[in-house]
Amino acid sequence: MTSPSPRPRQVRCPQCGGLSLYSPDNRWRPFCSERCKMIDLGQWASDAYSIPVEEPDSGMTDAFDRSGD
Asked: Positive or negative, the Cα torsion across 14, 20, 23, 28?
């Protein structure tokens, strides 16, 4: 006897929030469509997403500058 195939999981599209099928059958996963995938790619390309960087203390940079002397 064969077991029933598991039901495909549905997740929220990271771009529009709509339901998206998370399986190999969805070629845009985790996105719901090619449109949402391309919007997200465009946001990455235009630096809309970034990781915040803290500037080092000026005392730390002075210590690094003197270490090369």
From this structure: negative
